[in-house]
Write a structure and sequence with these properties.
single chain; 194 residues; eight-stranded parallel beta sheet; 0% helix; globular
């Protein structure tokens, strides 16, 4: 049986699952204080989550993932295992983070934003390589980030964009494929995720 630790002042819906087992000998599940885990959510074994974690309904956090403090995983959002997420991160409804992804602090992922980790799905036996999202990045609704890219600190990816190249820090990426532009004044500065 997997050891599960949930901090004080936390609520876990009756239909949520914390410590879902996988494989042989999975590690413990640790969730900090002040968590709010809503119905239908599944948090796997071998996951470490900081304080003030909250989910929408039917969220999934797969094995071998680490999440910092004050992370929101929205309704139907998926963290697909072996993912590192910083603190003060907001993943809105339907957002998807695949294996081997790294997300910094104070990052916003809009509804149905999708990161990928395989350039040629099932076409070749290449390894998985997720994106790196640096601190203070905002990714708009329905944006797609291709594998093995870095989205630089303070950048903004517009809704519906398809990012095919690294995005330099403090840059606006928009379009399909995304083109890089100077960050407009209203978008300048870091994110503050309350």
């Amino acid at each position: 049986m997997v050891r599960t630790t949930i901090g004080t002042n936390s609520t876990v819906a009756e239909s949520a699952t914390v410590g879902e087992e996988y494989g042989e000998n999975p590690g413990p599940t640790r969730i900090g204080t002040g968590a709010s885990i809503r119905s239908g959510t599944v948090v796997y074994a071998d996951v470490a989550i900081g304080d003030d974690f909250s989910t929408g309904h039917n969220a999934v956090v797969r094995e071998q993932s680490t999440l910092g403090d004050d992370v929101v995983v929205g309704t139907n959002a998926v963290i697909d295992g072996r993912v590192d997420v910083g603190s003060h991160v907001s993943m809105q409804t339907g957002a998807y983070l695949p294996q081997e992804t790294t997300v910094g602090d104070e990052v916003f992922l809009g509804p149905h934003a999708v990161l990928t980790n395989d350039r040629h799905p099932i076409r070749s036996a290449s390894g998985l390589s997720g994106a790196t999202i640096e601190n203070h990045v905002s990714i708009g609704a329905n944006a797609v980030i291709l594998p093995d890219l870095t989205i630089g600190e303070g950048s903004f990816v517009a809704a519906g964009s398809v990012v095919t190249d690294d995005v330099p820090p403090e840059t606006l990426a928009m379009g399909a494929p995304a083109e890089h532009r100077s960050l407009p004044e209203p978008l300048a500065g870091g994110n503050y995720i309350a």
